[in-house]
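ARCHIVE RECORD
Type: protein–small molecule complex
Small molecule: zinc ion
Source of inputs: curated submission
Record status: active
Notes field left blank by submitter.
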Amino acid sequence: MISKRKKYNGYKSFSYLEAGKDYKEFKLAKEVGRVKSSVIPLSKKEEERVESIFEKYLSISMHEHLLVFPDDPNDTMEYLRRSRQAIGYEGVAASGVDVVFEALNDGVAIAKSPDAWAWENVVHQIGMFNSDLDHQDFAFLARRVEDLQRAHDNGQAALVIHLESAPHMGTEYDKVDVLYGLGVRVMGIVYSEGNEYASGIANKNDFGLTDRGYDLVERMNKLGMSIDISHAGEKASLEIIEASKKPVFCTHAGAKALWPSRRMKPDEIIKALAEKEGIIGVEAAPHTTLTMKNRTHSIESIMEHFVYIEKLVGINYIGFGPDTLFGDHVALHHAFAKELSIGTAFRANLPEFQEVPYVDGLENPSEYPNIVRWLVKHGYSDQEISKVIGQNALRVIKKTWCK
Ligand SMILES: [Zn+2]
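STRUCTURE (tokenized, with ligand):
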């Protein structure tokens, strides 16, 4: 169901071309209701409160992959290789969320080079994304702070291009300006495997931020591009927070104190982030935000991370970056175990947990309102909810982006 606040007219990606003639068509996964994911049950009065919160306040999802995957996971590899990925406009409209940080197809963009973070891969996918975006008028590319509220007021969605890592650029820092010009407003310094700028969470040797990494942070600060530390190693994360003159995002992670995985952040990093006015988004990709108490991944274990972090640093330094997509996310993880940072290195030394076919209660980007339902059900005030679903992220954006 499309949120009644959103003006979506049914546009499907690339319908400006001829399917079968101009590009190979794949049967795509259903964007809404693909699986039987639970909806937090509420009374009529609570339902109305959820609706009024979305109506009144700006909502920002700090990390999603809005691409729609093929219905048959066996088609995934070829679909990605062709690098013509559909955007789930229907799912975004169903969520009712105003602003989404769109992480494109990080780590699996292999059209132009087998190296996911090759410059030509990254530029290709941004261009393809922008081309499709410019053929419809529900969603638009967010370039300035004022665009975000406009999406809320006009029943649209503002999509923020968000790269999980800097592509390989060597010392050609002018390329960061080029990315900015293409619309990139949030970027990680590094993905899990590490690069010339910083160590990633998969590196055995956490070598921190390199000299080039310091230069990159400085250029991003000057340009007004937000920095993300989600996939940076622990030493690198602390050094990035320290080096940045502006608040930093950790768009999608959780608390390592609750689940000892490399994808989670220790208290020390979460506190350092908050001390410099940055924020952390709670992650929901399959089998990430588990807890020792709750080893079957669902919205309940995800919200355990929220509650823990909120107690640790307060309500002003937390938000949500669900990191979901449209299609079978678990099948995708199996197919790309190495590239997606959930391979053996990440499973090693983790406590036993129950593998799930999907994350019940937060399976795809259209289910974002379930977070608000959970918060309403658990007694959070409208003001608190407005902060974690948008105002906190907006504060960081205002301090980072150029006006
Ligand atoms: Zn990620």
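CURATOR ANNOTATION: The chain has 14 helices and eleven strands.
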